[in-house]
Structure formats: C-alpha cells, structure tokens
Design a protein that fits this description.
Number of strands of chain A: 0
Shape of chain A: globular
Order of helices and strands of chain A: HHHHHHH
Shape of chain C: globular
Largest sheet of chain C: none
Structural class of chain C: mainly alpha
Number of domains of chain A: 1
Helix content of chain C: 55-70%
Number of strands of chain C: 1
Radius of gyration of chain A: 18 Å
Order of helices and strands of chain C: HHEHHHHHHHHH
Largest interface: B-C, 85 and 80 residues
Strand content of chain C: under 5%
Oligomer: heterotrimer
Chains: A mainly alpha (about 220), B mainly alpha (about 675), C mainly alpha (about 325)
Number of helices of chain C: 11
Structural class of chain A: mainly alpha
Helix content of chain A: over 70%
Distance between the termini of chain A: 63 Å
Distance between the termini of chain C: 30 Å
Number of helices of chain A: 7
C-alpha cells in the first residue's frame, strides 16, 4: 500500500481535476451538488491516505473535518436551500462552453508550468500534485466568473476552497490546526450568509440570475 | 565539350540552365505566335512539360551529388549572378519539375479562345514564371535572388490578371501585387542585415557571418514577415483567397502548388542555412504563426461556397502546418537536438511535396469542372461523377490525399509530424514541454477538420444530384487534361506508397541543414517506414493498401460465391414524400453550418433572416474574414490619412515649390558649414 | 514471421469476424434485459446477416459506382483494423503496421467513404447524415488520437503491440493520466459507435439519425456488409480499450501456449465490456444534436489534460 501511495494520491488529484472540469460544463444544479460531494470525498480519501502514510494525526483530523463539513453538512444545506428556493430542476444556459473549456486548458497549462519548479523542491510525498491543485483553484474561480445563477457561484467558491485545502495537504502535509478550524468556520458561516443573500435576491428580483443585480447600480 | 558555366564536363547546374533557357525560348515562341492558340496549346505547352520532366531527372541525380557553384556574367558589371545547386535546391527543383510537368500537360488541354489575354502572351508569362522559380532556388547571392524573385512576382501578377476585363479580378491582382511587394521589402531588409556590414551580398559570405542575437532575431523576424507574406501565413494571407480564384486554374495550381513552397524555401534557406546561431523562441514564433494560420485556414475553408476559395483557404491551412513543422525543427535545432530536428524537418519537407502534388491536382479539377459547366459556385454543381468520371476519380484520390488519409502522401507527412511532436519530453523548458503536446492536439484537430472540408468539396461537386439542369450536358475532360491529372495522381500515390525512397531523397537536405538524417534507420526495413526505431513507431503503407484491397476482393468474391450478386435499380427512399427535387439535398452552406456555429468567434458574419412580414422572405448569410476589418482596412485608412497629410505639400503654386528648393539649399549650407 | 505468427494472425482475424456480431447481440440482449423487455436471442445478428445476404439488392437509379463499392471498402478497412489490434497475441506479422496514428487514419478513411457514399444519392437524409457523421468525426478523431498519445507517452511508443507489451508487463502502477484518458475514451467510443447518448441505434426517426441515415439507402448484401462493419468497429474499439486499460492476458511472442488462454480471456473481457456499455446506454438519454460537439469537445480536452498531467508528473 505504501508503495502505491504517491500514485494513489496523484490519482485522487486527477479525480479532483476531472470533477472540476465536469462542474464547468454541468447545467443541472442537483448534479453540481453531487459532483461537489464526490470531490469532497476524494479530498477526504487523500487526506486519510496521506495521514496514514506519514503518520501524522493532524491529517486525520483535517480529513474528518472535511468529511463532516464538505461531504455531509454543506451539501445537505444546499439541498434544503434549493428546495426552498424552488430551483431544484432549473437548467441554466451556459456561456459558450467551447470557449470556457479552451480558457480552462490555458489555465491548466499555466498552473502546471508554475508548479513544476516548486514541486521539485518539495520533500512531501505528493509534491507533484501541487500543479493539479492549483489548476483546480483556477478552474473553480473561472466557474464563479462565468456562471450567471447564484447557487453555482457558491458551489464554485466552495470548490475553490477544496482545491486550496488539497494544495496545502499535499505540499506541506496540512496547515496548522488553528488555521484549519478557522477556515472551516469561515466557510460554514459564509455559506449561511450566502444562503440569506440568495433569499433576498430571490425576493427582490423573483429570480436568482446574478445579472439582475446590475439593476441596483446608481446611474 | 565545355559546359556553359565553366571549362570542363557538364554538371547538373548546366542542365538546369538548359531547361531554363528552353523555357524562355518557348515563351518567346509564344509571343511570336500570339493568337494561334492551337499551336500554343498543342505544341508549346507539351514541350514545356517535356522540359519539366528533364528537370526532374536532373534534380534526382543532383540530389545526392555535392553542391555545385557557378558564376554567370549576366547582371550588372560588378555584380555577376552567383548560382548554387545544392541538395536543398535539388529537392525544390524536383518539386517544381514534377508539378509543372502535370500542370503544363493539363494547360495544353485547358485553353479555349477568348480568355482576355492572347494565348501566346500567356505562354510567355507562364514559362517566364517557371524559369524564374527555377532560378530562385539556385540563387546564391542576394542580388540575383531579388531579381528573379521580382520576375516571379511580376509574371504571376500577369497570369493572375489573365482575364483582366473583369473588375474583381483586377482588384485581386492589385492586392496580390501589393502584399507581394511589402513582402519583398521585408526580404530585402533581411538580406541587408544578413550581410552584416561587409558589403558582400553573396550567400557564401552570409554563411560566414555571426550576427548578435538581437540582429539575428531582427533578420529572422523580417524573413518570416517577407517570406510569410508570399506564402500566405497569417496575418498576411488576405491576398491568397482573392488571387487564387481569380487566376485561370492551371496557374492557380502552379501558384498554390509551387509558388507558396518557394516562399517556404526562402524561409528554410535563411533560417537554417544563412543564419548561424538559432535561438529557441524563433521556433516557437514560427510554430505559433503556423498553427494560427492552419486553424484559421481550415475553419474558413469549411464555410466557403465557391470551389476555388475553398481550396485557397485549404492551402493556407497546409502552409500553416508546414510552418509548424519548420518551427518545431528550428526549436529542436536551437537546443542541439539534431536527430529530432531532422525528423521534424523531414515531416515538413514531405508535407511540402505532397501538398504540391495534391493541391495542383485539385485546382486542375476545378478548371475542368469550370470549363465543362461554366459554374464555380458550389451551389450550382452536383452529380458530376456520372458525366465526368475522368475528372471525378483522380479528384477523389486528390481529396483523400488532402484529407490526410492513408495510404497517400499527406498521411505520411502528418504521421511524421505527429511522431516528432511526441518526442518532446526532452526539452529543457517546462513551459515548452507542456505547450508541445497541446500543439499536437491542435494539429490533430486541424487534420480532422480538413477531412471535413474535403468531404464537402467532393460530395457537393461530384456526388448527389445535379443542382442545375444544364449539368446533365457537362462534357468530360480532354486527353491532355486527363494526362496531366493522371500524372499528378501517380505522384500522390508514389509519395504515399514509397516513403522510404522519398526520405532517402530528403536525407542530403536534412544532413546539410541540421547535420542529421533519417535514412539510415528508415531504409533498414525496406517496406516499413521506421523513423527512429522499431519499438518506437513503424508504418507500413503497403500493408494498408494491400490489406484493404485483399479484404475488398475477398468479400466481393465470397459474397458472390456463397450468395448471389443480383441487383435492381429503383427510385431512392423518399420517406413517403413523392416530390423530391435536387434542391432538397445539402447545400455548401448547409454542410459548413455546424462548423460555423462551433467556431463563431472566428468569423465576421452578416445574417439576414426572413421575418413574418416579408413579401418575399429570403435568408442570406455572408461570412467574411475578420482580419480584413481589424488589420488591413485600418492600415489602409492610416496610409490614406498619412498620404493626405503629406499631400498637403503639393500646393500647386509655383512660389511654394521655389520656396521648398530655397529652404533645402539653406539647410544644406547650414549643415555643411559645421 | 513464424508459422505460429501467421496462425495467430489468421486466428485473430477470424475471431474478430465471428465474434463481432456476437458482441453486438450480447449488448442488445443486456439492453433489453435492463429495460425489462425480452431479448431477441444472442445469435440474432447472425440470422440478420444471413437474411440480408440472401436478398436482392435494390440500388437507387442514379447511384454511381462509388455507392456500390463503398460497403466493400468500409468492410475491408474495419477487417484490417480488427486484424492489427493486438487482441490475442502480440506476435503478429502485421504488427509493424499496428501503429496508433495509422489506426486512427484507417477509421477516418472508413468514415470519409461512408459519408461520400451517403452523399452520392443526393437525398436530404443522406446528406444530413453525412454532415452529422463528419461533425462527430472531426471531434472524435483527435480525441481518440490524444487518448492513444497518453498511452504512447507512458510507454514511449506509438506501436500498439509495444504499448500492450509494456503496460502488461510493467509492475502494477497506477497512471492518473490513464484515468482521464479512460473517461475520454469512453466518451469517444460512445460517439463513434453510434450509441446513446450520442445516437440511438434503434431509432426510426430520420431527423434524429446519425449513423442510420448514412446507410438508409443500402439494402441486401451491401447493408449486411455495413452492419457487419459497424459490429467490427465496436469490436475494434472495445479491443483498443482493453489493450490500453486492461492489457493482461494477451499472449506474448515467446509463449505459444498462452494463445490457448488468450481467447477465453478476451471473450470474458469483452463480455464485461458489453455489459458495461449496455448499462451506460440504459442510464443515459440521447442528447440533442447541438450538444454533441460540447460532449466530444469535453472528451478532447480531457484527453489533452491527460497528456499534460503526464508531463507534469514526469511520466514518459
């Protein structure tokens, strides 16, 4: 098992990247939440595996935190939210998918070429996945930019956070515990506040389309 | 017997000069027989074709010989003509000879009365064009190079304007001339830099010079600009889709098949031979420009509705792919990886010679179709395979070669190019290491799209039902035209089936340019193409052809033996709707519509949709080149504005002109006084 | 070129020709069972071929010789493709020709000919099918090529036999790029073999057809050859997938007895693959034709990212 650990971690990294890409072209909100859940699960598996191999209990705690938060709590909250907002079966029209994908490829090349010299310096077991983690962060950011409805933007934000934690896990074997707890709390609170926002937007404009917010501009 | 150029036995260079002089004499004979088109068509052009075959034989023999130099006392008193025949020149002479033999034979059958220019004059321009091209590849100093380059440009200009009574053709000719001269300026400046202040413009001297990286890069960029303008590389490509359709078909064939390659010859000569210290980003620049042109060209060719414009954009695509190969070769060479550089260079050269053959074949077929039907728009053709089989079947071979399908030459070139892209993990820079697989992906995409275009081309013109009534009466090609096209088809097939022999021909070229060659591994296995090693990759065109034919034959025979071969002719399936017309099949616009939708950002489209209130509803879409509006028109407007400002100097009053002379005199005296 | 080599080559070819309709029948069986219908029987494709060969061929009045020649040519291409993919053994006399790029070129040749044959009659359906087939092809072909390149980069060779030998004999290693390549390959084979979600092979509505519209005009022996060629194509794609991702069990050059084991192993792997295909088909709905370029574009980009991951992780 230990012999395969670097390869397995690379495998999980690739899975996370694959899911980020799949999220970009996904139209249905329910599928987006499912993909986010699977991404969280992959992150948990990677953390546990790395913790087992390097004998660092911190990573177990970090993994458990991610499990509770990202795989169980937040998806449940999101499901409830979209049920209440009545957008469960919405199908969103996407901004030109081929262009988005091409830009995605460009971002992947950029992050890979950035990460290559850094990962050669790292002495962690899975230094090679820094580039992949960075690519996930960029792709999620791009997803936030190109989406026009509120819930996918929130999911993009959460997915970006996934990528950051994965980067931290693989390169430096996790962040200090205080930082992890702090980030987890921030994320939780963030989602709650975003939920409140979504209800407000919905009340004012009768739709969750972000472009309506431009009407608030003072001209 | 003393040779033409120096005392002693005849060398290959002499024979090439014999061919050049013969062509010039044929051209002169054409002028003397100005309007006797029978004589021109049946005697003079075939004679030209015979001399092309002689040129091919000379080039084949010269390819393995050592370089030969000659100095001709023509030209200005202190600037004689230096000529040199080395393996690179021999390769291009082979290309010129091979293609022009087929095209001259085709042109012999092509001419009809009343084309605007008298046939004798066309004969002169054609053969002067051929002669100047042959001299360009042998030029060994900048002076003779520019002289014959300009001759080539002028003669092709007159050929493009052969039907000068039509205004669009005149505009196309002027645009062509303009871009050709802008390119020539770039080339001239490049040569000026290459001679590095020594005053000696011979290439031999330029090879000795070692320019600083800055000046070397400037020279390279000027060479890419100048030769790229002539080759049709983005963004200096706008003349190609105008000039190629405007010229008569045999000359479009020559321009697309041969002249564009001569521009690439220039790039090769400057980048690999004359410049001594290559830098890595030169290759990257060339690759980027090449890929951009290729993608642009193929996407535009899919949406064209006129046959020759489609082929012109397809030429832009192929030139882009060749430039990508050249750029990759340059990149490897600048890092000292000579074996890989030879592989990429071989791929580019192979693509050059295949493209020369199959593109000329396709343009010749458009000529035959135009003469038979009088139509050039794809929307008015169709079903010609039944009335013109002698044109349709060679065109099918050409279409398969152009689409990069086995077992033709285009596939071998692509195979070699993709192989050279796969070796990239040895590059020192991580960024380049990652960029190169992405470029390989783009090349695969471009190749697939060119297959799409070629299916559209062949399907809309030759297959289906005739979209106009008069197409039923289309006549097949004449004997000369058939011979020309069959010659070109056999060229395509030979290039596809005997890659080892062709690579053996190219080895002296790669040896002289990058000091490495493929032939020793390639010819160890005679019927297999093995560029590097057996475990790495191998390709057997003979197996493919024989395998498919064997399966074909076996299936045919077995089915007939075990079952039967009965057949009955019935009307086609109409899904219960009995009124089927020829208009119900796909149009050229329809076939290209998916590509137009996917690649929408590339185009500048104007669409007119029918509304419910139109008395006569119609739908029109025009697809135009966005670079024309972003680059060419703004530059043209800028030039106009500057010339208007400068034109203010022309006051028209004598007093002002006298004042100009007076002011100049005063300024000169002031300067001299110090 | 030993006698054993020639024998295994012929065996591979005959196996392909005989097993391909069986594979199609197996997939159809499972689709029917998963949809709670009763299946037509495993040997139905053979009966169908026999029935078609017996019939008299009806050809449109103005069809050219290209139309009549195309089925034989396409069948020949597919038979050659099945013969050179290393299914049973890697010691084949034709293995020098088993190059990945050449294989993709062979598929492209078949695709071009079937599109041209469809355009030959000049009805609306044929040309519509030709346009759609070339659209699917222009994106699927580079995606397939990139998937094969992923494997080539890992094994440092584009020869299929070398890929199979290297992947089967390296000690077990997990290549993340092969995950991406696998997803991309699945998407591409669904598209190229005209399966749901790209094209429904059971459809009778001409406006939704891609592959069926191309062969609409064909009948009797021509249609039989084209159906057989389609089965061979599915067989070939499955074998490529097995060769890249599950290469174990293929006989080597110096192990003649392994040939005996290779055949049941192949049948087993194909059966699993067929079941998986039927499950994917049942679980998906057919896409609108406008979404197909996106679908295939995603496959292409996943394959390219697989290549990039290879470079990043320093493999090959």
């Amino acid at each position: 098992m230990i012999k395969f650990a670097p390869q397995l971690i690379n495998l999980f990294a690739t899975l996370i990247l694959l899911l980020s890409f799949a999220m970009i072209s996904q139209r249905r909100i329910v599928s987006l939440i499912n993909l986010f859940m699977i991404q969280g699960a992959a992150l948990v598996a990677a953390s546990f595996l790395l913790g087992y191999v390097t004998h660092q209990p911190d990573l177990y705690v970090s993994g458990a935190l991610t499990l509770v938060l990202k795989v169980m709590l937040i998806p449940w909250m999101l499901y409830r939210m979209i049920a209440k907002l009545n957008v469960r079966w919405d199908v969103e029209s996407l901004f030109n998918v081929p262009t988005t994908m091409l830009v995605g490829i460009g971002l992947v090349i950029f992050s890979f070429s950035l990460a290559l010299p850094i990962s050669r310096l790292s002495d962690s077991l899975a230094g090679g996945s820094l580039g992949i983690a960075l690519a996930c962060v960029f792709l999620s950011f791009m997803m936030m930019i190109t989406r026009s409805k509120a819930v996918p933007q929130v999911i993009g934000f959460l997915s970006m956070e996934n990528g950051l934690i994965f980067a931290a896990t693989t390169v430096t074997n996790g962040m200090p515990m205080i930082v992890e707890f702090g980030i987890a709390l921030d994320v939780l609170v963030g989602v709650l506040i975003l939920g409140v926002f979504m209800f407000q937007i919905r009340e004012k404009f009768d739709s969750l389309d972000i472009h309506n917010l431009e009407a608030l501009k003072e001209d | 017997m003393n040779s033409l150029t120096h005392p002693g036995a005849w060398i290959h260079l002499d024979w090439v000069l014999v061919v050049v002089v013969a062509w010039l004499l044929i051209g002169l004979a054409g002028v003397l027989a100005l309007r006797r088109f029978r004589f021109v068509a049946v005697v003079l052009f075939p004679m030209g074709a015979c001399f092309s075959v002689l040129l091919m034989a000379v080039a084949l023999s010269a390819a393995f010989a050592s370089p030969e130099v000659a100095v001709l006392p023509l030209g200005l008193p202190q600037l004689p003509f230096h000529l040199r025949l080395d393996s690179l020149s021999a390769f291009f002479l082979l290309l010129i000879g091979g293609v022009s033999a087929g095209v001259s034979a085709f042109a012999a059958g092509y001419f009809r009365q009343g084309e605007g220019t008298p046939p004798g004059l066309i004969c002169l321009e054609y053969h002067v064009f051929l002669a100047s091209i042959a001299l360009v590849v042998m030029a060994d100093d900048a002076y003779v190079f520019m002289v014959v380059w300009e001759t080539m440009a002028f003669s092709s200009f007159f050929l493009v304007m052969a039907n000068h009574r039509i205004p669009e053709i005149r505009n196309a000719g002027y645009l062509y001339m303009l871009v050709a001269h802008i390119g020539a300026l770039g080339i001239l400046l490049c040569f000026g830099l290459l001679q590095a202040n020594t005053g000696d413009y011979t290439f031999a001297n330029m090879r000795q010079q070692h320019l600083t990286p800055f000046w070397g890069s400037v020279a390279f960029v000027l060479a890419v600009f100048g030769f790229g303008a002539k080759a049709g590389v983005l963004p200096l490509h706008a003349w190609l889709p105008e000039a190629h359709p405007a010229a008569p078909s045999p000359f479009s064939a020559l321009m697309s098949g041969v002249m564009l390659k001569i521009a690439l010859y220039g790039m090769l000569r400057v980048a690999f031979d004359l410049l001594q210290d290559q830098i890595w980003w030169w290759g990257v620049l060339l690759m980027t420009l090449g890929l951009a042109s290729a993608l642009f060209g193929v996407v535009f060719s899919t949406v064209q509705v006129e046959m020759k414009r489609l082929l012109a954009y397809s030429s832009i695509e192929n030139i882009g792919l060749i430039c990508t190969g050249l750029g990759l070769s340059l990149l490897f060479f600048s890092y000292g990886m000579q074996a890989l550089s030879a592989l990429a260079l071989t791929a580019a050269l192979y693509h050059m010679i295949s493209h020369a053959f199959f593109k000329s074949l396709l343009f010749c077929s458009t000529g035959a179709v135009m003469h038979a039907t009088g139509e050039r728009s794809l929307g008015k053709l169709g079903g010609l395979i039944r009335t013109m089989p002698w044109v349709a079947w060679p065109t099918l071979m050409g279409v398969l070669a152009c689409g990069g399908l086995p077992p033709f030459g285009g596939f071998v070139a692509e195979w070699l190019l993709l192989q050279s892209f796969l070796f990239t993990t040895g590059l020192p820079s991580a960024f380049l290491d990652m960029l190169v697989p992405v470029m390989a992906a783009l090349i695969a995409l471009i190749a697939a799209l060119s297959g799409y275009t070629m299916v559209k081309y062949f399907g809309v013109i030759f297959l289906g039902q005739p979209r106009e009534e008069k197409l039923q009466a289309a006549h097949d090609a004449g004997w000369w035209e058939r011979m020309g096209m069959l010659w070109l088809v056999s060229g395509c097939m030979l290039l596809g089936l005997f890659p080892n022999q062709v690579i053996a021909l190219m080895e002296p070229v790669t040896k002289s340019l990058v000091q490495a060659g493929l032939a020793h591994t390639a010819s160890d296995n005679s019927w297999l193409l093995v560029p590097v090693s057996m475990e790495r990759a191998s390709y057997a065109p003979a197996i493919f052809l024989l395998g498919v034919l064997a399966a074909f034959g076996l299936a045919f025979v077995l089915v007939r033996k075990l079952y039967h071969g009965r057949m009955r002719r019935v009307p086609p399936w109409d899904c219960g709707h009995p009124w089927q017309t020829a208009r119900m099949q796909d149009t050229a616009e329809g076939f290209g519509q998916p590509i137009r939708q996917i690649f929408e950002p590339f185009f500048r489209m104007k669409r007119h949709l029918p509304s419910a209130f139109d008395a006569q509803p119609h739908y029109r879409v025009t697809v135009e080149d966005p670079l024309w509006y972003w680059l060419y028109l703004p530059v043209a407007r800028l030039v106009e504005r500057v010339s208007r400002i400068v034109g203010m100097l022309q006051q028209g009053r004598i007093a002002v002109y006298l004042m100009y002379s007076f002011a100049t005199l005063v300024v000169v005296l002031l300067v001299v006084k110090r | 070129m030993s006698a054993l080599g020639i024998f295994s080559q012929l065996l591979a070819l005959v196996t392909a020709l005989l097993l391909a309709p069986l594979l199609t029948g197996w997939v159809n069986q499972w689709r029917a069972w998963l949809q709670n219908k009763s299946a037509p029987g495993l040997l139905q494709p053979y009966r169908m071929l026999h029935k078609l060969f017996k019939k008299e061929s009806l050809v449109a009045e103005h069809a050219s010789s290209l139309f009549r020649m195309a089925p034989y040519l396409i069948f020949g291409c597919m038979a050659l493709a099945s013969a050179i993919i290393p299914t049973l053994s890697t010691d084949l006399p034709l293995s020098p020709a088993a190059d990945a790029i050449a294989l993709v070129g062979l598929f492209a040749l078949a695709r071009v000919f079937i599109s041209l044959a469809a355009m030959d009659i000049g009805t609306a359906f044929g040309t519509l099918g030709a346009r759609r087939e070339m659209l699917v092809g222009f994106l699927a072909e580079p995606a397939l090529l990139m998937v094969l390149f992923c494997a080539s980069m890992i094994t440092k060779s584009t020869s299929l036999t070398a890929i199979v030998e290297t992947l089967a004999h390296r000690e077990l290693a997990i290549y993340p790029s092969l995950l991406l390549a696998g997803v991309a390959f699945t998407m591409v084979s669904l598209a190229e073999n005209a399966r749901v979600p790209v094209d429904n092979p059971d459809t009778h509505l001409e406006l939704t057809m891609i592959h069926e519209a191309l062969i609409l005009e064909y009948s009797a022996r021509h249609l039989a050859l084209l159906e057989w060629a389609a089965s061979l194509k599915l067989f070939a794609y499955s074998c490529i997938g097995l060769a890249l991702f599950f290469p174990w069990g293929v006989a080597e050059a110096n192990a003649p007895l392994a040939l005996v084991l290779a055949l049941p192993m192949l049948v087993f792997k194909l059966a699993m693959g067929g079941m998986a295909l039927a499950m994917v088909e049942t679980a998906s709905a057919k896409m609108r034709i406008f979404r197909v370029p996106e679908f295939l574009g995603t496959a292409f980009l996943l394959a390219v990212i697989g290549l990039l991951v290879n470079v990043l992780l320093g493999v090959g």
